């Protein structure tokens, strides 16, 4: 497991941009972290690194945003408002687990057991200082 410390929102975005360089179509990134840890900022950096143009916003109310990218699309999924397994099934997440997408899932602990083999896990935690964030990277959990 690799760990990195970010001390600002800009560092978090830059970390996302660098992380994007290793991603390929068909990959799923599961993001876990409390409110305010910078999941969406990290995703915005990933999207920028993948060539997504325009504003990247949290899909908290829409649940899924798709962003066109040079290779196909980025699916940005936010499961914060999902309350049950049946709601997850209705979303049809499996359609985003294909080579057409790079799939970025916030609040991924809600889909434990439903993610494809080989997904990547990014855990983000509050650090000891106000703007400090601790990033842990694993292949899966």
Provide structural commentary.
This protein has three helices and seven strands. By secondary structure, the chain is an alpha/beta fold. The protein has one domain: P-loop containing nucleotide triphosphate hydrolases (Rossmann fold). The protein has a seven-stranded mixed sheet with strand order 1-7-6-2-5-4-3, with helices on one face. It is globular, with a radius of gyration of 14 Å. The model has no long low-confidence stretch (mean pLDDT 92).
Highlighted features:
globular, 7 strands, 30% strand, alpha/beta, seven-stranded mixed β-sheet, 141 residues, Rossmann fold
SSE arrangement:
Elements: E1 2-6, H1 9-20, E2 28-33, H2 39-49, E3 64-69, E4 72-78, H3 85-91, E5 101-106, E6 120-126, E7 133-138
Parallel strand pairs: 2-5, 2-6, 4-5
Antiparallel strand pairs: 1-7, 3-4, 6-7
């Amino acid at each position: 497991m690799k760990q990195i410390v970010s001390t600002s929102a800009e560092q978090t975005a830059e970390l996302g941009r660098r992380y994007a360089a290793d991603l390929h179509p068909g990959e799923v990134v599961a993001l876990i972290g409390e409110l305010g840890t910078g999941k969406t900022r990290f995703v915005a950096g990933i999207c920028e690194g993948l060539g997504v143009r325009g504003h990247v916003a949290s899909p908290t109310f829409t649940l899924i945003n798709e962003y066109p990218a040079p290779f196909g699309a980025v699916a940005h999924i936010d499961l914060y408002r999902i309350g049950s397994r049946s709601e997850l099934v209705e979303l049809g997440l499996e359609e985003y687990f294909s080579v057409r997408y790079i799939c970025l899932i916030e609040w991924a602990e809600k889909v434990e057991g439903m993610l494809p083999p080989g997904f990547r896990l990014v855990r983000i935690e509050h650090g000891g200082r106000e703007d400090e964030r601790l990033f842990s990277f694993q292949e899966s959990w």
